C-alpha cells in the first residue's frame, strides 16, 4: 500500500484535466416559494425569472447600503472579499480533500488575516492620520506597521514549513500557491476598490454599476437575440449579447454619471472627520464635476442639429470606464469560466439562487477595480494638499517648524508671499 501511495503522489504532475477529482455538484438553493410560483415554466424561463427577481433584490439592497454611507460600503467590500476567498479556497479543499492536507484551511485563513492587516493598516495610516495621532496605543502599531505585518507573515510561513508531511510535499506546495493566488485576486483588488472609493463615491459607483449593467444587458440581448457563439469557454455568451451590452453600458454610464455629478455626496473625496468620528463628503467640486460647454463635431452637427452641448467633464471619463467594463471586463468572467471548467464545477458556490456564488457575480469587478485605480493615478489624480497636511500634522513640532521655514523661504524667493507677510 505504501508503494501505491508513492506512485500516486509521484505522478501528480502528470495528471490532466480528466484526472481532476470530481467536486460535489452545488445544491439548488432557490426558495421554495419561488419554486412553486414558477413550477409551470420551462427550465429556461424559470432561470430567467429567478435571476431577474434576485437581481432586482440585490440592486435594491445595494441602493440601501449607498444611502447608509461610505463606511457601510467599505464593510460590504470587505464582506464580499472574505466570501470570495472562502469560495475559491473551498474549491481547492474539496478537489484535494482525499489527501487530508494538514493545516491547509487554518493557514489559508491566517494568511488572509495577515494580508488584510497589511493593506488596511496602510489605509488607516494614509486616511486616518489625525485620528491615530490622538491615540498613543495606535501610534506604535502605525509606526512599525510594515515590520509587524512582515513578522506575522513569517510566522505563517514557518508554520507552513513545519506542517510539511512526507508524500504530501508537492501537493502542499500546490495549495500554498493556490492560497497566495487567491489572496492576489481577492484582497489586493478589494483594497483598490476602497482606494477608489476614497477618491469619491462616483469613482466607486460608476465602474461597479457599469459592470452590473453590462452583465444584465448582455444577458438580455443574448437571451432574446443571441445566435452567434462568442467564446468556447462560455458557450452561452454570444456576439449579439456582447455588442448589445457594450452600447447599452456606454449609454447607461454617460447618463448615470450626469445625475451623480450633480451631488457633492457622490463627487467629493471621502474623508474622516476626527472631531465627529464620521466620514464626510463635503467639498467644492473639482473641475471634473462642473458643467462646461463643448462644441459638437461637424459631422454630428448635421445629425443632431446642435452646435454645442453642456455636460460634465467626468461624463467623458465615464465613456472610458464603460468601454473597459464592456470590452475587457467580460474577460474576467471568461477567466472564471475557464477556472470552473478546469475543476468540473458549474458555479463557485450556490449562495445566490440562479446566479451561483458571490465570486460568480464579482469575477469581472476585480479587473475593473484595477483599471479604475490605474486610470485615476494616470489621468486624474494630482497632488493632494489634504493628504500632505495630515502627514505634516504627524511630525514632531521641531520638524513642522523646519518644513514651515523651508516653505516660507521658497515662497519668498518666488515672490508669492505678500509684502506684509515678509516680516
From TrEMBL:
What are the record's GO terms for cellular component?
endoplasmic reticulum membrane
Keywords linked to the UniProt accession: Lipid biosynthesis, Lipid metabolism, Membrane, Nucleotidyltransferase, Phospholipid biosynthesis, Phospholipid metabolism, Transferase, Transmembrane, Transmembrane helix
State whether keyword Transcription applies.
Answer: no
What membrane topology is annotated for this entry?
A: Multi-pass membrane protein
Q: What range does the record give for the signal peptide?
A: none
Transmembrane stretches in the record are 48-80, 101-120, 140-162, 174-194, 200-226, 238-261, 314-336
The record's subcellular locations are: Membrane
> What reaction(s) does this enzyme catalyze?
1,2-di-(9Z,12Z-octadecadienoyl)-sn-glycero-3-phosphate + CTP + H(+) = 1,2-di-(9Z,12Z-octadecadienoyl)-sn-glycero-3-cytidine-5'-diphosphate + diphosphate; 1-octadecanoyl-2-(5Z,8Z,11Z,14Z-eicosatetraenoyl)-sn-glycero-3-phosphate + CTP + H(+) = 1-octadecanoyl-2-(5Z,8Z,11Z,14Z-eicosatetraenoyl)-sn-glycero-3-cytidine-5'-diphosphate + diphosphate; 1-octadecanoyl-2-(4Z,7Z,10Z,13Z,16Z,19Z-docosahexaenoyl)-sn-glycero-3-phosphate + CTP + H(+) = 1-octadecanoyl-2-(4Z,7Z,10Z,13Z,16Z,19Z-docosahexaenoyl)-sn-glycero-3-cytidine-5'-diphosphate + diphosphate; 1,2-di-(5Z,8Z,11Z,14Z)-eicosatetraenoyl-sn-glycero-3-phosphate + CTP + H(+) = 1,2-di-(5Z,8Z,11Z,14Z-eicosatetraenoyl)-sn-glycero-3-cytidine-5'-diphosphate + diphosphate
Q: Name one Pfam family in it.
A: CTP_transf_1
Its pathway? Phospholipid metabolism; CDP-diacylglycerol biosynthesis; CDP-diacylglycerol from sn-glycerol 3-phosphate: step 3/3; Lipid metabolism
| Matches recorded under InterPro entries | PC_trans, PC_Trfase_euk
Q: Indicate yes or no for the key word Lipid biosynthesis.
A: yes
- GO aspect biological process, one term: CDP-diacylglycerol biosynthetic process
Class in the EC hierarchy, top level: transferase
For this protein, the Enzyme Commission number is: 2.7.7.41
Q: Which GO terms describe its molecular function?
A: phosphatidate cytidylyltransferase activity
Q: What PANTHER family is this protein classified in?
A: PHOSPHATIDATE CYTIDYLYLTRANSFERASE, PHOSPHATIDATE CYTIDYLYLTRANSFERASE 1
User: Family assignment?
Assistant: Belongs to the CDS family.
Q: What is this protein called?
A: Phosphatidate cytidylyltransferase
Q: Which gene encodes it?
A: Cds1
Amino acid at each position: 500500500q505504501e508503494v501505491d501511495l508513492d506512485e500516486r503522489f509521484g505522478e501528480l504532475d502528470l495528471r490532466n484535466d480528466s484526472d481532476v477529482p470530481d467536486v460535489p455538484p452545488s445544491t439548488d438553493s432557490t426558495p421554495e416559494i419561488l419554486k412553486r410560483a414558477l413550477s409551470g415554466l420551462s427550465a429556461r424561463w424559470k432561470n430567467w425569472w429567478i435571476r431577474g427577481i434576485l437581481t432586482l433584490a440585490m440592486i435594491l439592497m445595494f441602493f440601501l447600503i449607498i444611502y447608509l454611507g461610505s463606511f457601510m460600503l467599505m464593510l460590504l467590500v470587505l464582506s464580499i472579499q472574505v466570501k470570495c476567498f472562502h469560495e475559491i479556497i473551498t474549491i481547492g479543499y474539496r478537489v484535494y480533500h482525499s489527501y487530508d492536507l494538514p493545516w491547509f484551511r487554518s493557514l489559508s485563513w491566517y494568511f488572509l488575516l495577515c494580508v488584510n492587516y497589511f493593506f488596511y493598516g496602510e489605509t488607516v495610516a494614509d486616511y486616518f492620520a489625525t485620528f491615530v495621532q490622538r491615540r498613543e496605543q495606535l501610534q506604535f502599531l502605525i509606526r512599525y506597521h510594515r515590520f509587524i505585518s512582515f513578522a506575522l507573515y513569517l510566522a505563517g510561513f514557518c508554520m507552513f514549513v513545519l506542517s510539511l508531511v512526507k508524500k504530501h510535499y508537492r501537493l502542499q506546495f500546490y495549495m500554498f500557491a493556490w492560497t497566495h493566488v487567491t489572496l492576489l485576486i481577492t484582497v489586493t483588488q478589494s483594497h483598490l476598490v476602497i482606494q477608489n472609493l476614497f477618491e469619491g463615491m462616483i469613482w466607486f459607483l460608476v465602474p461597479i454599476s457599469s459592470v452590473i449593467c453590462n452583465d444584465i444587458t448582455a444577458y438580455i440581448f443574448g437571451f432574446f437575440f443571441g445566435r452567434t457563439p462568442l467564446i468556447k469557454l462560455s458557450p452561452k455568451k454570444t456576439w449579439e449579447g456582447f455588442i448589445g451590452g457594450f452600447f447599452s453600458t456606454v449609454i447607461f454610464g454617460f447618463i448615470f454619471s450626469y445625475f451623480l455629478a450633480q451631488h457633492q455626496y457622490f463627487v467629493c473625496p471621502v474623508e474622516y472627520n476626527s472631531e465627529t468620528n464620521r466620514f464626510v463628503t463635503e467639498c467644492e467640486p473639482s473641475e471634473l464635476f462642473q458643467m462646461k460647454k463643448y462644441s459638437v463635431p461637424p459631422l454630428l452637427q448635421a445629425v443632431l442639429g446642435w452646435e454645442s452641448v453642456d455636460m460634465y467633464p467626468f461624463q467623458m471619463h465615464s465613456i472610458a470606464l464603460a468601454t473597459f467594463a464592456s470590452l475587457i471586463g467580460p474577460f474576467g468572467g471568461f477567466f472564471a469560466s475557464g477556472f470552473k471548467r478546469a475543476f468540473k464545477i458549474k458555479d463557485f458556490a450556490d449562495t445566490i439562487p440562479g446566479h451561483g456564488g458571490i465570486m460568480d457575480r464579482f469575477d469581472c469587478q476585480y479587473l475593473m477595480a484595477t483599471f479604475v485605480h490605474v486610470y485615476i493615478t494616470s489621468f486624474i489624480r494630482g497632488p493632494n494638499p489634504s493628504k500632505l497636511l495630515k502627514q505634516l500634522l504627524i511630525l514632531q513640532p521641531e520638524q513642522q517648524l523646519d518644513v514651515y521655514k523651508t516653505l516660507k523661504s521658497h515662497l519668498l524667493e518666488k515672490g508669492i508671499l505678500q509684502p506684509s507677510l515678509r516680516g
